[in-house]
Design a protein that fits this description.
The protein has 447 residues and is mainly alpha-helical. It folds into three domains: 6-90, Fumarase C, Chain B, domain 1 (Orthogonal Bundle); 101-134 and 150-193 and 200-333, Fumarase C, Chain A, domain 2; 344-446, Ribonucleotide Reductase Protein R1, domain 1 (Orthogonal Bundle). The chain contains 18 helices and six strands. It has helices at 11-14, 18-34, 40-58, 69-81, 94-130, 150-174, 194-200, 210-215, 218-244, 272-295, 310-332, 338-344, 352-361, 366-383, 395-401, 409-412, 415-420, 430-446; strands at 135-140, 143-149, 177-178, 205-206, 252-253, 335-336. The chain has a two-stranded antiparallel sheet with strand order 1-2. A two-stranded parallel ribbon has the order 3-4. A two-stranded antiparallel sheet has the order 5-6. Helix 7 links the parallel strand 3 (177-178) and strand 4 (205-206). The structure holds arginine. Arginine is lined by residues 10, 68, 94-95, 98, 302, 304, 306-307.
Length: 447
């Protein structure tokens, strides 16, 4: 089979490694000259050729197709500077070259993702601060639980994203070793200086074992896992936007530019962008499975199977960058239907916990208090199911279930008070929420 055969060739998809490949070659050639492995006049010629290719590619010029991007650039170089260009590949193999390109690519994309996650966190923080006093039902099992502040709910996503930030930062640390100089698998007898090349490329040091180096794709797996995690977070956010914007909930309105109509039902405004955000998470998850199974049975060291690491990696990087930016726009333009959210708190006995807590404060063991209130709520549910807001429950009804109830209970039987008073650290209460906002603000300023 010819090496240009589409089954063998990776050029159609690895072209996007071109800037990283050239960056790696520049460092390699500078090292070769420094160690006098090639004459510095030759190195100069090669470097000016590589720089001119880099400039032309940035202007949109395309390379002639080859087996892969590494050959395509080498061919173009020889075309431009003549046979001296054939010296570039001294003391190098495509095996350490491709490992290097991929590390540079992943490092670059990780930094871009970190920036865009940071911007999304700021957008969420902004949305929370602007809507600090909006009340909504807090859910467990998608059933009404307790009244909470919307700000508290939406900020949960900023903290998930903070963990994503930490994970990506960890990956940047794992990307700190340069593969260049591992060559095909066993290193080289040329007197190369791996430390020098590593420093030129912004790595702290060279890798320790050349066999591991050309076989290692852990950093790609890690990148795709970190990205899948972020996509799962965004997918959960998207799912909430879909639910909240449904006619049944009507808590929020997604900006028109992010909705689509129906080809048959003229009235429709579907939350397509949010649904796609949810749907696209499956790409990253699929890529993760693809890469795990790609690696699991490969003997050391390099095998051509590894070429298949690129499509899932590139697709994941594109997906996560587009998705974080879309989520940012969705939240930035989201409109809240405050009245609807607050009225919804009147359903589902959201103050039942307050009643139980009240009794517990009066000395009734909590388990007993829980049981008293639970029976009370059950009775209302079967007798007058419409009346699920406990704010206006007559004192006589309360006294009938426990003599501990008194007039002061109404201080606690308020949806606003119930949310406001939950000031345990990390809770939804107004003071706890302010602390949370302060902590997140200073964290985001530091990054
Ligand atoms: N296109 C190849 C890849 O992506 C480059 C390395 C080829 N190495 C080899 N020994 N055939 O993995």
């Amino acid at each position: 089979m010819k090496s240009s055969h589409p089954y063998i060739s990776s050029f159609s998809f690895d072209q996007r490694l071109a800037p990283y490949d050239i960056q790696g070659s520049i460092a390699h050639v500078r090292m070769l000259a420094r160690r006098k492995i090639i004459p510095s006049s030759h190195a100069k010629t090669i470097l000016s050729g590589l720089n001119s290719i880099q400039r032309d590619l940035a202007k949109g010029k395309r390379l002639r197709a080859a087996e892969d991007i590494h050959f395509a650039i080498e061919n173009e170089l020889v075309q431009r500077v003549g046979p001296v260009g054939k010296k570039m590949h001294t003391a190098r193999s495509r095996n350490d070259q491709v490992a290097l390109d991929l590390k540079l690519y992943v490092r670059d994309k990780t930094k871009q993702i970190l920036d865009s996650i940071h911007s999304l966190q700021k957008t969420i923080l902004n949305c929370a601060t602007k809507n600090k006093s909006v009340l909504m039902p807090g859910f467990t099992h998608l059933q009404h639980g307790q009244p909470i502040y919307f700000a508290h709910h939406i900020l949960a996503y900023a903290w998930m994203l903070q963990r994503d930030q930490d994970r990506y930062q960890g990956l940047i640390r794992h990307l700190n070793e340069s593969p260049l100089g591992a060559c095909a698998l066993g290193g080289t007898s040329f007197p190369i200086d791996r430390n020098f090349a590593a420093k030129l490329l912004g790595f702290s040091r060279p890798t320790e074992n050349s066999i591991d180096t050309v076989s290692d794709r852990d950093f790609i797996l890690e990148f795709v896992f970190d990205s899948s995690m972020t996509m799962v977070h965004l997918s959960r956010l998207a799912e909430e936007l879909v639910i909240w914007s449904s006619s049944e909930f009507d808590f929020v309105q997604i900006a028109e530019e992010f909705t689509s109509g129906s080809s048959i039902m003229p009235q429709k405004r579907n939350p397509d962008s949010a649904e796609l955000l949810r749907g696209k998470s499956s790409r990253a998850i699929g890529a993760l499975m693809q890469l795990l199974s790609l690696l699991k049975s490969q003997p050391l060291s390099y095998n051509r199977d590894l070429q298949e690491d690129k499509p899932p990696l590139f697709d994941t990087a594109d997906t996560v960058l587009d998705s974080v930016s879309l989520a940012d726009h969705l939240i930035r333009t989201l409109k809240l239907n405050r009245t609807k959210m607050e009225n919804s708190c009147k359903q589902g006995f959201l103050l039942a916990t307050e009643l139980a807590d009240y009794l517990a404060n009066k000395g009734v063991p909590f388990r007993e208090a829980h049981s008293i209130v639970s029976q009370f709520v059950e009775k209302i549910r079967s007798n007058s199911p419409k009346n699920q807001n406990l704010e206006k429950i007559p004192l006589s009804d309360l006294k009938a279930i426990s003599p501990h109830f008194d007039r002061d209970v109404y201080q606690f039987l308020s949806l606003h008070q119930a949310a406001k008073r939950k000031n345990s650290y990390g809770g939804t209460g107004d003071r706890a929420l302010s602390t949370q906002i302060k902590n997140l603000t200073s964290l985001l300023q530091k990054n």
